[in-house]
């Protein structure tokens, strides 16, 4: 075997073990008995220790020096393996293991504190997580900025300054759009109850319509919907609110966007570094365009209105236009995942600033709740009423995802570019969506983005797919047009 | 740290990884998407490769040479670690990995072949499994007998000759008992349907009554009921037959016997070699005594009769005596797991002889179906009607469990000894069982057997608990008395 082949065989085992770790994470959030939390923390720590040791193995460095890639995909494999090898070498083994162990347990503490509306119960373990992440950031950054180093783990080839500049460019137009909308009459929402079985049945149908391969996945319930796994075992979760069926349906469509991305990747890349999405931002671009530009479009809402009436009878809104307005209602609210397209990115900006301050040390965990509440009041104009609507609403920080939030807005921005190109390439898209036919859109995305997996860097894959440089302009133009029409601005 | 402490810290990680492998097995049999079978095989192979390398690590040998155990439990730890180290060193790494990979996939092939009644679809991969197990047996046995070496993996300190002698001693009395019973009128079984929800609700209640700790476990459905995991995450499965509620209820009680054993082990042994049952035979003694000597006793059946009438209304049998007779009906049938206490061990003897012949090479996989059917006719007097009632009924061989079946009869035999001692120590046991109170019995078993985990060798733990040498006599005496009375022999 050549050095390249030896390296790839070794890497295949590492990737398989990483899949096992991911499967344990799925188990923890869906089916694990409550009393198993501590033992699971130990198990997660050991799996991470094995993975870390494999990624740091000196043989990887030797193979990388000698390996000759047979083609462009091989070069990308070497790029990703080297990146992971170098990042892993910077993080001490004990720290990597401790992080896996603590974040596994912190997740349970977060869920409990959130259920009990008690930030103080979560505070001690969050302090430990933040302390460990600061150490990890410092180890990764060496002379650079720790937050940038953490961000780089989710979105290569960007940094906090670029993100901040992007946010600065977006904020005034989003704030102005929001203000204009909130002066207009609020459309009516749905005012009845929707049974769980009916919501789940429709969720399953929508998942299939958006291209989810059920033979290689499954749908379960979770506190915080997520997608887990790569290759032939990509699982999604959703949640149900009997008064708000859109919570369940659009969570499902969102996670199907993530899942079909993983399922569509070139099978030659299975159990290699290219066998997963290009970055969290690109991943989010798929879930966002499925959920919003496609799923919340006027054309698709027309089809969904009829489909929901078949399942549930009268929907308490007059017609498809009123239904479309209800789906896209811009409303006051506390929860990021339930936010409309206009306000969503303001939620991300809040988290971005707070998490940077936590990692830099400018904000102590003990002051987080007050800082969140102050900032929320300032940005949204009303006060947080309880911790589960405030700084306890998201799972991310408990599991150590610092530097992750901005990838949501990057995903929105990528989705804006892709949507413009998709509509240019498929002039009859709305006709298809109006029939509940997602085949054209998901086929385009599969071909342009998804099948490539990690072959290209984020801006490259979005740039190649959309045929334009990546900027916030298409997203803002789309939002202003859509909501301008909806609210007669 | 002393050599002993270093070794134990190392071993703790190995045990945690073994738990992860077990969790993947649970996942595969309960929730895994069908299309993930091949990828899962790869994952199982890699986990096994990591475990095998850890168990063979030269440091383990060095620590074992230098380690001084602080107490008797420490000595038992060293005994078990050395045993596993020596066994692992004999099995080539490639073989260990290949076995994990192939058996993971073979399980899916078995389930498919069983559903389609097609042994020929299962034959090729079973040939591969048998070939690999013969290699493993030969590697482990060195100069000795390969089947003995495989058996030793499930039940230390016994061999096939001892098992065969035990079977020879049991068979004439079981055959005579069966023949006498089959000449008597057959009691009536239940003749109505039982809804799934009611069966599951009662299963959950029974699990709790038999001591299952729900905070550290869960109950799911599986084709073949099983128990999985140790310590704080011990999961059970069951299955439902709407015409036969005893299938679900007694499968659940059986698996609860396994599960409470794991849950009751001294927590100081968590994630060590002593933190699991002493052997498969001792494990089976717990599931068997829960299911049969306790669960199918006249006293408990009296309580269960009332309880089931509360849930389901009229049961189609006249009274508690008729219910007890229905629960313990000795009837013709093909399926081992549904067999009554009298005939169960005859099923095991059939499998023991066939699997020894497969491992020795005297029987080819291609001839297995015919050999099974011939032997079944000879032992039971009627012909197998379809493969799912014949050689495709059990999952065991697909997952490489050769040498495992005899531990079921060993378990019955151990349960016979324990039952005699339990009834000696708790004279009012039947009063308790008649009230549905399992606390006295399960408390005795917890104290005498379960809490010790792997501290003692099988015959030692059963001998200490029952205060008698381990023989088949108590089991046979119990069966002859119970069924003699039931059938007025």
TrEMBL record, chains A, B:
Keywords, in A-Z order: Carboxypeptidase, Hydrolase, Metal-binding, Metalloprotease, Protease, Zinc
Catalysis: reaction(s): Release of a C-terminal amino acid with broad specificity, except for -Pro
Residues the record marks as active site: 255
InterPro entries referenced in this protein's UniProt entry, alphabetically: Peptidase_M32_Taq (IPR001333)
CDD domains for this protein: M32_Taq
GO biological process: proteolysis
Annotated EC: 3.4.17.19
Function as written in the Swiss-Prot or TrEMBL entry: Broad specificity carboxypetidase that releases amino acids sequentially from the C-terminus, including neutral, aromatic, polar and basic residues.
Keyword Zinc: yes
Origin species: Pontibaca salina
Superkingdom as given in the UniProt entry: Bacteria
Cofactor(s), by name: Zn(2+)
Family that this chain belongs to: Belongs to the peptidase M32 family.
Listed GO MF terms: metal ion binding; metallocarboxypeptidase activity
Keyword check for Hydrolase: yes
Name of protein: Metal-dependent carboxypeptidase
